[in-house]
Recover the amino acids of this structure.
């Protein structure tokens, strides 16, 4: 056999980008299960529908860019985008919402920038933000957790869900929609959170569903940390800054601001902390940089949730911090071996 | 009336203050020479070959700075010099104004010594005094000083000067750039080739 | 076994599969002695070693075969006994796969050691001597870069070494060479450590070893626990790259080596265990570094174990000995899997730094999949032991933003490969860094070179500018000098009373010799002028003779002073140099005496002329002076004849000539004085006549002497003579001119002196003619080569004469017009001048014909250089022709190329002519050569060139379809020439 000449090293750790993405997909399973369990088939259908679209669009784009299709499809990054968007959309959002979202995510936010690794913004969050601004009604019509409805666990069958998503929205769906806790929070009037839960039994009953879903995401995140897919810096920094800020305000004016636990366990906080803020492509590079990146997201989430126009804020916070990532990179270079202090800036 | 006076006085006062300020700073922060010319000159390859149409690198640098000469007239510097100049002067990088290759191969002059008739013409042509010899004596090029400017080739009456690329030895061999990812199109089915070191 | 020392941490690191167990099963065994070894002259950074053996020489095992040059260089020793068969380029272990100079030795199978002996007690040796001893043994770092060890041992000289670290970490997978060495030869290592410790005197010694080598740790403890040194064995957790020098230092001491520094700057020196063992063997057994332990492993190798291998053994021998399955072998790696290099040639030899050979199978080391896009996952950053941002560096390297890469500390990268190992996108990061580093180094180098070129360019411009200025100044100086000369002449013509202006002369004092000389000359000139004026006045019987006399006396005084000052000044600095300068002194004495004599004579003449004063007293004085003069001259001549030799001869003649000239002047003056006296019916006339007689005799004597001296002179000085003669002639001519003009003036003013003047002019002219004759004789005697110069000079003379003739003509016509009585005489003068002119012209034609006649005679003598010149001409012609042809072909179709064609034709004709000339000359040469044995080599070269020309022409013919006939004709001629040459060659090569 002819000898070959190649550069060192000659050993390589098994695995590639595709396996990293598959691990991430695996880590979303608890969250997906929890969503399906509490909110019906909708989320699962959204995820599958999104994945299908994502693969097709990715293949099309790669083909148009004259790149080897199978090579690029097997990095599974499109699937991750689709799953994340699927988890973020309301379970009964019409099919075209997902179609628009995935098109924007894959074609505009990712492939137009040069494909995986070159996109400055998280594709799923770009799509989510765009959908939220464009179709506020569809995007804010969340299904109520089944537990809140009090009449059993399977109100909408698979078929009904499918028709709700792909055909005209049925009135049955309307009956199942309700505001999310964050919406309620926004329009709660003069109540404190404590009072709200006490006042509304239904809500008190249903909040557990949100907690459970957040816990599922948290589990997935811990799994990824264990697998060393990412470092602890970004999620911990984000959660910590959010907690610190909300605690501060909650302690100052408990009747005005919700408690930190509420912030951590509702909305997309956990999903964002472990699956969005840790997106390596669009976050800061160094460990120090990831800390600042996470802190920034945490602060922005709190600020937008508290004083902003939209109920949830993870998408906007992440996008804004994506903008800052290169800047953060320049000023958070690590101190290299043998250097007294780190370099700053780009020179 | 007094308001007009005040306005005039204020304006005068301001004018005075700023005038003094400007006058002072023009003395205090006076820049000797034109640093931009030096900067441009330091980016040029100093072959002094005159291919830009100027009698040396510094005159070209001066022309770039003072006479808006195009920055793409330096074949020995290649595209990288053009880009460096564009970067420095904050102008558009133009493609190299020559049919020559974008990254020229570094060459040095060699005299075929048995054909040299000792006319000293090349010695006079050499801008960096890199040719050694005397009248009626064989000449030779001090390779380490040669900038590869080509200027000695034309004056030679017997065409005994060759411009030869520098030889690669163990000491100046360098790692080639890894093949860019675009190579994947060709090697998609045989991925093993992609990383082989060329040469 | 527990650490007594706290182990620190370094950032990052990886845990690749170790694969070490495979090769630790068997003890170290000796590899078979190779039949042939290849020793690369350069095995590390720094300078290659210089071979000290010849091809064909027999060398013994351990014999020095190549010597270190420079500080960072190491000796190379033969590792077998045998014969040096070649010193030539051969593949070496290098990433490029290129060849480099190697020394190849063929074994004689005896494996015979050169006589060697260790040091009985190295502690008795001075440190420097011991280090030199180690240097002589050719020991280089056996861990990585192969840095000559003695350089590190010298670090104690200018650094304070606190800590000596022995690197036993061996962190790379697969490699077990150090492990096995420690297990089996811990005593040697200990011995080596003691020697190094003796040299560097560290306060603390630490042996860093990874915890995956328990047996080695036990062996080390057994060997070292009883040591008197402050030594600790530090066990570090297994993590790649803990064996990197900087990483190990961080692990053991917690200190970081500052970027750009060496460990010694922070008081630390690292040595590899293999090196310590080699030092021990060199010092105690006197064995230079000729073998080392190498791990042969990899799935394709049947026997995976460590061998002690002679340096220079080709890899193929080792592979065969380990029964490597070539079918399975897919990657052959020298070094470890993380930093080793792949080689493709099994003939590559083992060198001092080769610690492992991995025969990798495709299963074991599958080809790396193509690189995916970087997802900035940051895994590389987590493992980087240098705490860099590998992915940022990758982006910069890929985008060729080298400045940014450098800013991100690219040069702190140790190329350990950890980042590439973990990269999920399979990006060859290390290669990007190597590429970027090389590019940056190249850019720096180019920048340096450009700066250097700029300096040289500017220096050249400055030099040219300086030259120009100097030239300009010289030109200006010449102009000034000429103007001054002109002014002096004007002064003479105006005949001004010189009293005032001379006074400054003597005061100038000692320093400026030139100034003094010129002062003296000016004084002399003025004196002469005054004398002349006096004579004039006397002749005309004008008033004021007394005042003039007064002036003359003063001038004489001054002149004497000036001359004295000059000669003094000249002698003063010259005194130091012995006899020659004495000679000068004498000479000047003689001259002074002569001058005095002259003056006295003049005075006498004046006195007699004016019939005044004490003539007898003056005469006495003159005779006294004459005696003195003769004595001085005698002394001078005596002195001169002592040291003088052949070379002095020309000086003699010049002196003689000067004497003659002076005498002649005297004679002239005396004659004129006498004539004056006669005219004024002075009673002194008879005496004067006698004096003139005497002087003339003296002159003749001198002239005889001169001609004798000249005859005695070698022929070579003839040229000098002619120039001198010419100068004389020019001077005379000047005099003639002046006399002429004076005469004309006199004629014009109807002066009674006109007749006399005419006679003077006549005489001068005669003299001139005499000189000219002499000149032509001298010229005739000269070799033919100088004829060309002569003709030009002659021509110049002719032109000058013609000018004069014209002027004289003009003057004559003017005189005729004014009915001047001098007109007739003038006519005669003009006539004479014209005759002279004709004579000169004749001479010129003669000279020309002579030179032409001389030319062909000269040709054969200079044939050899001519041949060269002809050849050059031919080649120049050829080139010109080529260039013209090129121009022609470059011209657009249909353009007017008739002119060019014509030019080419003429060039061709010239070329042919030149070529024919050359050929003829060469034929002559060949014939000549044939007469005295032929320069076969030259002939061969010529023949080869002719053949090459033929092939070239043929090629041209095949290429150019259109211009075939001409080319064919050319081809035919060239072929003929080639055939001719071949024939000649054959003729002579028998």
């Amino acid at each position: 056999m002819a000898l070959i000449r190649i550069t060192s090293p000659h050993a390589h750790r098994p695995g590639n980008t595709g396996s990293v993405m598959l691990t991430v997909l695996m880590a979303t399973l608890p969250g997906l299960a929890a969503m399906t369990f509490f909110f019906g088939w909708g989320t699962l259908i959204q995820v599958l529908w999104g994945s299908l679209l994502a693969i097709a669009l990715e293949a099309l784009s790669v083909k148009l860019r004259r790149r080897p299709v199978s090579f690029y499809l097997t990095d599974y990054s499109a699937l991750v985008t689709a799953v994340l968007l699927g988890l973020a959309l309301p379970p009964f959002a019409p099919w075209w919402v997902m179609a628009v979202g995935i098109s924007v995510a894959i074609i505009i936010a990712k492939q137009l920038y040069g494909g995986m690794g070159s996109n400055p913004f998280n594709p799923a969050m770009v799509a989510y933000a765009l959908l939220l601004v464009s179709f506020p009604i569809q995007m804010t019509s969340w299904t109520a957790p089944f537990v809140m409805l009090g009449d059993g666990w399977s109100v909408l069958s698979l078929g009904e869900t499918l028709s709700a998503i792909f055909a005209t929205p049925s009135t049955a769906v309307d009956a199942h929609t309700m505001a999310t806790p964050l919406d309620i929070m926004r329009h709660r009037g003069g109540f404190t959170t404590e009072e709200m839960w006490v006042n509304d039994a239904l809500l008190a009953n249903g909040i557990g569903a949100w907690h459970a879903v957040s816990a599922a995401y948290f589990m997935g995140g811990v799994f990824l940390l264990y697998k060393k897919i990412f470092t602890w810096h970004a999620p911990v920094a984000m959660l910590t800054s959010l907690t610190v800020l909300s605690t501060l305000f909650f302690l100052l004016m408990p009747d005005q601001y919700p408690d930190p636990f509420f912030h951590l366990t509702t909305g997309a906080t956990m999903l964002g902390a472990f699956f969005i803020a840790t997106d390596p492509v669009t976050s800061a590079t160094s460990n120090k940089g990831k800390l600042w990146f996470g802190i920034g997201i945490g602060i922005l989430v709190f600020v937008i949730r508290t004083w902003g126009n939209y109920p949830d804020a993870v998408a906007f916070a992440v996008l804004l911090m994506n903008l800052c990532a290169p800047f953060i990179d320049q000023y958070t270079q690590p101190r290299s071996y043998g250097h007294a202090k780190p370099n700053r800036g780009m020179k | 009336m007094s308001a007009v006076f005040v306005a005039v006085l204020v304006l005068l006062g301001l004018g005075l203050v700023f005038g003094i300020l400007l006058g002072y700073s023009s003395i205090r922060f006076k820049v000797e020479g034109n640093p931009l010319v030096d900067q441009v000159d330091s980016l040029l390859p100093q072959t002094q070959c005159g291919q830009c149409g100027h009698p040396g690198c510094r005159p070209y640098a001066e022309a770039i700075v003072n006479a808006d000469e195009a920055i793409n007239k330096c074949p020995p510097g290649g595209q990288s010099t053009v880009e460096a100049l564009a970067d420095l002067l904050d102008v558009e990088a133009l493609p190299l104004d020559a049919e020559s290759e974008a990254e020229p191969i570094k060459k040095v002059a060699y005299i075929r010594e048995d054909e040299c008739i000792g006319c000293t013409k090349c010695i006079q042509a050499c801008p960096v005094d890199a040719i050694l010899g005397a009248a009626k004596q064989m000449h030779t090029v001090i390779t380490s000083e040669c900038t590869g400017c080509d200027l000695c080739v034309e004056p030679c009456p017997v065409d005994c000067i060759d411009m030869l690329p520098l030889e690669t030895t163990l000491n100046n061999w360098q790692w080639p750039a890894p093949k860019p990812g675009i190579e994947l199109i060709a090697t998609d089915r045989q991925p093993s080739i992609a990383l082989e070191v060329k040469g | 076994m527990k650490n007594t020392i706290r182990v620190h941490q370094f950032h990052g690191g990886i845990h690749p599969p170790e694969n070490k167990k495979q090769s630790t099963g068997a003890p170290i065994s000796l590899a078979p002695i190779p039949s042939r070894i290849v020793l690369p002259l350069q095995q590390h950074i720094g300078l290659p070693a210089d071979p000290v053996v010849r091809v064909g020489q027999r060398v013994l095992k351990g014999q020095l075969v190549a010597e270190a040059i420079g500080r960072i260089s190491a000796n190379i020793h033969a590792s077998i006994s045998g014969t040096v068969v070649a010193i030539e380029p051969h593949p070496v272990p290098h990433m490029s796969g290129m060849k480099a100079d190697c020394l190849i030795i063929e074994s004689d199978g005896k494996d015979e050691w050169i006589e060697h002996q260790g040091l009985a007690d190295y502690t008795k040796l001075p440190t420097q001597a011991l280090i030199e001893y180690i240097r002589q043994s050719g020991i280089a770092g056996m861990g990585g870069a192969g840095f000559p060890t003695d350089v590190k041992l010298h670090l104690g000289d200018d650094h304070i070494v606190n800590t000596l670290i022995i690197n036993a970490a061996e962190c790379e997978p697969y490699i077990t060479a150090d492990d096995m060495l420690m297990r089996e030869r811990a005593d040697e290592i200990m011995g080596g450590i003691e020697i190094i410790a003796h040299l560097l005197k560290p306060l603390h010694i630490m042996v860093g070893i990874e915890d995956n080598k328990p047996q080695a740790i036990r062996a080390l403890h057994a060997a070292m626990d009883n040591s008197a040194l402050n030594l600790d064995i530090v066990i570090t957790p297994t993590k790649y790259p803990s064996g990197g020098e900087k990483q190990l230092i961080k692990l053991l001491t917690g200190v970081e080596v500052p970027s750009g520094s060496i460990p010694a700057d922070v008081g630390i020196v690292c040595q590899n265990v293999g090196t310590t063992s080699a030092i021990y063997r060199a010092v105690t057994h006197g064995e230079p570094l000729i073998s080392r332990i190498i791990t042969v492993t990899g799935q394709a190798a049947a026997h995976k174990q460590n061998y002690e291998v002679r340096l220079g053994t080709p890899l193929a021998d080792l592979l065969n000995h380990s029964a490597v399955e070539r079918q399975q072998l897919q990657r052959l790696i020298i070094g470890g899997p993380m930093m080793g290099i792949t080689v493709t040639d099994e003939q590559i030899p083992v060198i001092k730094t080769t610690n492992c050979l991995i025969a990798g199978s495709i299963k074991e080391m599958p080809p790396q999949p193509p690189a995916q896009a970087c997802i900035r996952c940051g895994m590389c950053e987590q493992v980087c032991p240098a705490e860099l941002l590998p992915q940022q560096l990758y982006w910069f390297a890929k985008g060729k933003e080298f400045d940014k890469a450098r800013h991100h500390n690219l040069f702190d990268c140790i190329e350990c490969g950890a980042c590439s190992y973990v990269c999920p996108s399979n990006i060859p990061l290390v290669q990007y860094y190597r590429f970027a580093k090389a590019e940056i180094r190249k850019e720096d180098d180019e920048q340096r070179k450009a700066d250097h070129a700029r300096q040289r360019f500017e220096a050249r411009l400055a030099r040219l500018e300086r030259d120009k200025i100097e030239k300009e100044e010289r030109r200006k100086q010449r102009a000034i000098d000429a103007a001054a000369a002109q002014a002096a002449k004007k002064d003479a013509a105006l005949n001004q009373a010189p009293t005032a202006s001379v006074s400054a002369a003597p005061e100038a004092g000692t320093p400026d010799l030139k100034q003094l000389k010129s002062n003296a000359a000016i004084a002399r000139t003025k004196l002469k002028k005054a004398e002349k004026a006096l004579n004039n006045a006397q002749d005309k019987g004008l008033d004021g003779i007394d005042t003039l006399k007064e002036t003359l006396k003063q001038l004489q005084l001054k002149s004497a002073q000036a001359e004295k000052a000059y000669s003094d000044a000249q002698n003063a600095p010259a005194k130091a140099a012995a006899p020659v300068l004495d000679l000068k002194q004498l000479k000047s004495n003689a001259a002074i005496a002569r001058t005095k004599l002259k003056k006295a004579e003049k005075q006498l003449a004046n006195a007699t002329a004016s019939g005044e004063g004490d003539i007898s007293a003056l005469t006495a004085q003159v005779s006294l002076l004459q005696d003195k003069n003769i004595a001085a001259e005698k002394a001078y001549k005596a002195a001169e004849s002592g040291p003088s030799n052949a070379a002095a001869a020309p000086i003699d003649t010049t002196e003689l000539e000067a004497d003659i000239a002076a005498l002649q002047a005297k004679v002239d003056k005396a004659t004129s004085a006498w004539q004056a006296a006669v005219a004024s019916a002075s009673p002194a006339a008879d005496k004067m006549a006698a004096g003139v007689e005497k002087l003339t005799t003296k002159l003749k004597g001198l002239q005889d002497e001169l001609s004798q001296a000249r005859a005695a002179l070698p022929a070579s000085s003839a040229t000098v003579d002619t120039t001198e003669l010419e100068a004389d002639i020019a001077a005379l001519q000047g005099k003639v001119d002046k006399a002429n003009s004076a005469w004309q003036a006199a004629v014009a003013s109807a002066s009674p002196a006109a007749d006399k003047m005419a006679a003077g002019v006549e005489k001068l002219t005669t003299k001139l003619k005499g000189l000219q004759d002499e000149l032509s004789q001298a010229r005739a005697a000269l070799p033919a080569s100088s004829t060309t110069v002569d003709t030009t000079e002659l021509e110049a003379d002719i032109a000058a004469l013609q000018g004069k003739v014209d002027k004289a003509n003009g003057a004559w016509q003017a005189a005729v017009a004014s009915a001047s009585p001098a007109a007739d005489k003038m006519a005669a003068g003009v006539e004479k001048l014209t005759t002279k002119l004709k004579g000169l012209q004749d001479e010129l034609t003669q000279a020309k014909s002579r030179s032409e006649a001389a030319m062909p005679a000269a040709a054969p003598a200079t044939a050899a250089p001519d041949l060269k010149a002809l050849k050059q001409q031919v080649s120049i012609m050829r080139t010109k022709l080529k260039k013209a042809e090129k121009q022609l072909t470059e011209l657009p179709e249909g353009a007017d190329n008739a002119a060019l064609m014509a030019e080419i034709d003429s060039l061709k004709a010239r070329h042919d002519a030149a070529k024919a000339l050359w050929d003829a000359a060469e034929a002559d040469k060949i014939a000549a050569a044939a007469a005295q044995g032929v320069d076969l080599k030259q002939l061969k070269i010529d023949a080869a060139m002719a053949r090459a020309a033929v092939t070239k022409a043929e090629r041209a013919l095949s290429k150019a379809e259109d211009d075939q006939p001409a080319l064919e004709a050319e081809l035919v001629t060239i072929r003929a020439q080639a055939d001719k040459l071949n024939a000649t060659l054959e003729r002579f090569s028998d």
